[in-house]
Each structure stands twice: as C-alpha cells, then as structure tokens.
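Fold these two proteins, one after the other.
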Amino acid sequence: MDPDTLKQLLDTVARFIDQRLRPIEAVVADEDRVPSEIVAEIRELGLFGLSIPETYGGLGLSMFEETQVAMELGRVSPAFRSVIGTNNGIGSQGIVIDGTEAQRRRWLPRLASGETIASFCLTEPEAGSDAGSLRTVARREGDEFVITGTKRYITNAPEAGLFTVFARTDTTRPGADGVTAFLVEADAPGISLGKPDRKMGQHGSHTCDVIFDGVRVGIDAVIGGEARLGHGFRTAMKVLDRGRLHIAAVCVGVARRLIADSLDYAMQRRQFGKPIAEFQLIQAMLADMQAEAYASRCMVEETARRRDAGRTVATEAACCKMFASEAVGRIADRAVQIHGGAGYISDYGIERLYRDVRLFRIYEGTTQIQQLVIARNMIRDRAAADWPSRRSEEPPVPR
C-alpha cells in the first residue's frame, strides 16, 4: 500500500473511532455487547480483512501497515478490536500461511468480508501455555476424523462460524508431535458451547468453552491437506508470532490513549492553586509513561519492518509482546494514580481500561512464556555460534 493510501485508511479509522466508537464505550461495557449496526459498519470499512491478501478479498496489509491500524484501534475499548481480531490474526492466518488453495478460496473471502467469524481453538482446561499436552483427539476412521475434546477461553466462539481446531491425531507421539490443525464449521453436529465467561475486563468481547463430542470432518478439513498431518503445532507457532506483534501494537495504542487522557486531566485538575500537571511528581509519572510508550512503539515498528523484509522475528516478536503488554499495565496504573479518586470510579473510563489491559499480559502467550521463548532462542542461537555474528552483521532495515 502506498503511503498516501495508508494515511487515508488510518484517517478513516481514526474518524470512525472518534465519532462512532468512543461515544459508546461505556454502553458496550455495561451491556457486554457490540451493537450489530457497529459490526456492520466495521464490515463496510473492510477491517475484517486487514491481513488477508487482496487476492481473497482482504486489504493485504503488510505487518508494518497492520501495526499502524492496530495502534489506532488501541485508542478505544479493546472489545471493538476483538470483533475483527481473530479474523485478521489467529482465525485466518493458519489458512493464509499453511492452507491449501481450495481452503483459501473457500474461507478467506468470507472471513475478509466479515460474513464468517473465525475462532482459534487451541487452549484446553489442562493445556494453555503447554500446548504440547493437548488432550483433544481426532481419531481417524477411513477418510474422516472424529474429534472429541473441550477447548477453553475461546475468543469470539459465541459468534464464530468457523473454528481452527488443534487435536492430537497420533497419540503415540509425545508433546507437540502428532497434533494436527483442522477447519471445523461451527454448526457441525456434535459441537456445543459453554456459558459465556464473566471476565474482569474487555466486556463486549466474548469467550466460552467449545465442546467437541464426536465431531466428524473429512480429510479436506486438515489445514494444508493430508501432507500436513501432525504439523498443527508448527502452524500454531507461525500464527502466534504474527499475533504477538499485533497485540503489542494494540498495547501501544491503549498506552497513547491513557497518556492523552491523563495529560488532559492533569492540565485541567487544580490543587493548591495550580494545575496538577505543574507538580514535578505528576510530571515524573507522565514522563515515564511517555518513555515506555515510545520504546514500545519503536520496538513494534522495527520488528514489523524486519518481518516484512523476510527476516525471522520469533525472538523480537516475543520481546515486543512482553515489553509492550507489561508497559501498558504500568502506564494504566499511573493513569489511575494521576486521576486519583476520579481514576477509581467509572465516570472517566480509566478504571475500565485498567481492567481491560490486564489481559494483554496473558493471552497470545503469557509474559512468562515470552521470557522462555526469548531465553531459549538466545541459548539456541548462541550454541550454534549464530547469534553474535547475526546480530553484528544485520544491516538496518531501510525506512
């Protein structure tokens, strides 16, 4: 996308946020739903297909371009971004990256238009961060697989028309080996949903259990076809790398919102005869917030450019997700502190955002999982005598 077109897209998204979404944030939180007319407008803007290639009806944004849109979407309640999040990330990218051409042509146009909402069924009651311990089984019977198991905390499950389901097709192989990714239509016989989860924050975004009880699918439901049996965990990891960058960009957007709201409040709120923004301890908190948000943005944008240039960014994406999600948590805490009592009540929306951002440190891999990914990759590269040379020889990515 050329710079002028990208600017037009970002301006359009910004106006939509300011004019349509910001005014109804509190209503969405209170009613725990995004109005259908707003979802329809989101479809019209093409936001369900940000990361889906143009060939299949999407906008085909690069990773850098997608992070810019995500930063804009972060300026409003995360519930709105969640409406489109799974279609652009974990719900569609498995098909984009590893799907067959027939699977792409069947599903991607419907996901890009928002006609179908996709969900990503990986987490289980006893398998979250340890995805290799999945207990959901897909037993082969001729040209069919019979899927049985329960998935937990599945975002957009109540609205989904398609599930990407990870199940064990070879129970003799330990860990992540033997796990296969399937595309399963939500109305398939044998699928049922648990009651919607009552969450700390991000009201309006829905999660629940998805129960598979003898669900039958054909061999054409395997992402990538029969040749990719047992490769589901690899598909999941490819998808999560991109998703972590996207979530980090959303964290940057929320941080910008919190800083702007806190600065406005500090400049208007008066104590001891002057605005509290003139007090040095308030200034210190504002400065720390700005520095952390700026560092997060630089990390995200640089890593996105590297990914667009074809480099492997698994370690860098984990760094971005870990740092940005932790940073926005600290920024939200300072925002409450700057607002004082006003930050603790619902009128200003700060307490809502404080609760909303807590989830960023958990999904798409917890902070602790990011630490493990980063450290293990460092050790692996060092053992291969690759890390120091790669680090010193990599030229900067052109701006």
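Now the second one:
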Amino acid sequence: MAMLFLGFSAGLPILLIFSSLSLWLREAGVERSAVTFFSWAALGYSFKFVWAPLVDKLPLPLLTRWLGRRRGWLLLAQIAIALSIVAMALVDPSNETRLTWMALAAVALGFSSATQDVVIDAYRIEAVESRIQGMMSASYIAGYRIGMIVAGAGALFLASGFGSTMASYSYQAWQWSYLIMALVMLVGMTTTLLISEPGAPNKTDKIAASYPYPTRDYLQLLLLFAFSVTAFVLVFFYSGALAGVVKQQLGNPLGLVNLLAFVIESLRLILAIFAAYSVARWGLALGVSNKDMVEMSYVAPVKDFFGQHGMKTALLLLALIGCYRMSDIVLGIISNVFYQDMSFSKQEIAWAVKTFGVMMAVLGGFLGGLLSMRYGVMRILFIGAVLSALTNLLFIALASAGHDLTLLYLVISADNLSAGLASAAFVAFLSSLTNVSFTAMQYALFSSLMTLLPKFLGGYSGTFVATMGYSNFFILTTLLGLPVLVLIVLAKKHLALEAR
C-alpha cells in the first residue's frame, strides 16, 4: 500500500512538465518548437545520478533525526515538488517575457521530482527482501500510472471545466488546475509520515551507521557539488550566445540546418559537463572535500558495476540502457501537440490518452511482469522493443485520417500496451543489475542514462516535425528502435557467458 501511494506521488509531477504543460503552452500561443524545448526541463531525471550520492550520504538538519535517512529526504523532495508546481501556476506563459520564469519553475519541478524518485527507488529496494520486490514494483507502477492519470486527464478536465480552450485561452483556468495538483501532493507527504524507515528498528543506530563521517565533511561535499553545478550552469548559459552566432554564420549548408543545430547544442552540453567535472577535480585537489568520501559516494558504485561485468559487457549494457526507451520517448514528447493538431479536444485527449491509455499501460505492465517471470526478462525485453517501435507506425495512419476518434483509441491501445510491457521488463532488467550496497547511486545512474539521450533528442521533435512533417517523423522514431534489437541480442549473449 505504501508503494502504491508513493508511486502515485512519483507519477504526478512528470506530466505536469510534459504533456499537460505542452497543452497549456499551446493554448497560450507558444510556438510548437518552443513547446518541445520545454521537455528539457525534465532533464533532471536524466542527471539525477549526479546528486544521488548526496541523497545517500548527506544528513538533513532536523529531518534526518526526526524521520530517518530515507523519509527525511523524501519529505523534503515532496515539499519542493508542491512549491515548484505552485511557482508554475503563478506564471502566465502567454506573456513571452515571463516564459523564462516558467522554464525555471519547470526545471525546479524536474529536479525535485527526480530527487523523490531516487529516494523511492532506494526505499523500495531496501524495505523488503528480494522475493517481494516483484510485488513492490507492481504496486509502485500501478500507483505511478494512477498519478499520471490525475496529472494528465485530471489537469485537462480541470482546465477545460474552468473554461480554457484553444479558441479562448484562460490563464486562471490553468492556474487553478496546477494549484489543485500541488494540493494533491499531500497524498505523498502523508504516506511519508505514516510509513516506517527501512532497516534496523533502532533509528538512532541506523542513522549513525548511515552517516559515518563528521558533519564538516558532508558540508564540504555539498559545497563541492554546488561549485560544480554552478560551473555547469554558467558555461551552458553563456555559451548560448556563441552557439547562436555559429549557427548564423554556418547558415543552412546542404539543407542540414537542424542537424548542425543538434551537433552545436550537443557540444554545448558536453562543454558544460566537462566544466563541472574540472571544477570537481580542482576542488578535490585543493582539499575542498574529503577524497575518501567522494570515492565512496561516486567512484565505488561505478567501479563495482564495471568490476562485476567487465569493461566490454558493462559498456554494452550501458548502451542498451541509454537507447532502449529512445523510440517511444522522442515520439511521446510531441504526441499531445500532435493530437491538438489533429483537432482533438482536451476532453477527448483526456479520456483517450490520459485515462484509457494509462489503463492500457498498467495492463501492459502487469502482462510484461508475468511474461518476464514465465519466459525470462531478456526475451520480453526484445519483444517489448519490437512492439514499441512498430506501434509508432500506427501514428502515420492517424496523421492521414485526422480527427478519427475510433482510430485514436486503437492507436493509443497498441502504443500504451506495448510501452507498459516493455517498461515492466526494463525495470526488472535494471533492478537485476543493481548492487544493494550502492542502491541509490547505481539505480539512479541506470534510470538517468535511460532517459538522457531520448529526452535530449525529444527537445528537437518540434523542429523535426516542422521540417519533415508528422509521417516522416513517425518513421524516424520507428527506425530509432532498430539498433536496440541488436544491443539486446548482444547483451543477452554476454550475460549468458558471464553466468557460466
């Protein structure tokens, strides 16, 4: 029951950044390409491994002693989520001068929601023995999907009920919808206060064992992290002007302007990551933080993974993790804009996509879990990848038919059923790779890598559609799933050899 409600708390914020926000922005008159760029606000989910060790190792004043290691961080993350949703509600995106504030609030929501995910994943793995993990995962996924229904269909029904439409935009309607979503986060907060801390019954001894370093070392680690994040933000922000000049100078050689823009933005991201890494290295050299503590927090979990599987197999597994969800995530980011462009109303989208579709995903999740137990995770992982890629082609028929409600339900059924099946097998696959000695860091690293490249590519989905049209875009997302099939076959072979 606890995982059901915690799953609900985890599933609520994500659609308030993705689909619900994209519909709000479109009604407010924001351009399609700018709407999909807002998906980058959720990149916190893809970089959560960076601060996962802080969540694992850093005690919180008052909260840790009051609630314990996991619940203290969980309550803090949930409060931050609610405040971020309120901040988004206070911004009217129809005012272009305030779009930056909306983006900052969305980034804060992505950051705090990703932090909650780190804690819940660690709690789920630590709270019960391995034989019950399947039940815990199923309850969590069911709650997560229910949270998505509330944040997806619920937010759309509220905004529509309060009087906002494409023809007659109402900021107050969306504002009240998001304020109500912030209030719904009380479900997660209440659950956190009622559940028990995993581990030893003596909370004082448990806390002391979890935080063996003096307070000063934890503060220094937090300071080093702050310096690195500041370097990342400054380099990425100030390199934007230079990137704009380079794009202007290059023009559109051979009609590859979108590809060049993607390469330039990728280089900006790599440069910012390198700057953050360099600051961290310099900080350690200058004694800003305890080297042993950083080694245990960041290096040891990675060494453990590569030591367990070997360099070649480990890199293959990481490539599979990074590419597995690419096909459906890239399409999913622009899907709600597509439904609007096909003249479906918010009520039709809410019922078909956010309610019926999520129920089909839940069904697919349970089906994927049962089939994984019966036939093995890798086999269902392969089948899920095939179905997820092929169902993208059904969107071509919907693009040609336009406003066809029957076809919409058919496409949503196939797409969500296959996505649920693939996700269940993938969660089981990731959990099997995690060492319980490094729960938070390793699982955060895997789940971060899972969404990093897909979400980065998805930010350009609006630009791709504007250039090539919806039908060609859906073909492209299908092709993105083909390399995954090769990676699954190779990974299965290497893991089988490893087991011998």
